[in-house]
Amino acid sequence: MSRRKRKRGKEVGESLFFFSPPSLSLLLPLSPLSIFPCHPPPARAPDRKVELVSEETDALRAALDKHSHRERRRAADDVARAELLSGRGEAYAWSAAADADAAAASSVRSSKRMVQEALATGGAALAAMAGQRDTLKRAQRKALDVVHGLGLSDSLLRLIERRQKLDSALAYGGMAVVTLVVLWAWWHFKR
Hints:
There is one protein chain. By secondary structure, the protein is an all-alpha fold. Among the domains are: 1-38, no CATH class; 106-152; 153-191. The chain contains five helices and no strands.
């Protein structure tokens, strides 16, 4: 055979081992083995295997990175969801502070209302006592007028007035003693 035919035969023979370009594959008859990928020549095999392994390693590394990124994101979402559901997130802290402020403001309002009610009650009691005092003064004057009218002596009137002063002193003294005893008991039990 001539060199040209040999060369052409070699090209045709090599086309069985490599994927041929589309123009040659249309011209060559299809053999039953042409559907299977052919291996590269033995001299180039180790380089190709290294390339294939490195490509597969890169692909696996990329898939692993993608999977680990998804898992980290899923774990962060789970933590955020748990914080929201348990009420320990930043939004809950702000909400808890706002609730505490609202509760304090409500407590101040209710305390103010109670103080105003106590002052109103005290004012009403004081007004009632002033009215009673006036009523008692009028009754005393009438009683003294009756006594003067009956002709009782001045010494008896002085004795009655002294007795009234002694009674009021005893009443105020008793109130002071009771107040001191209550304060002492409160101080003693507080410690």
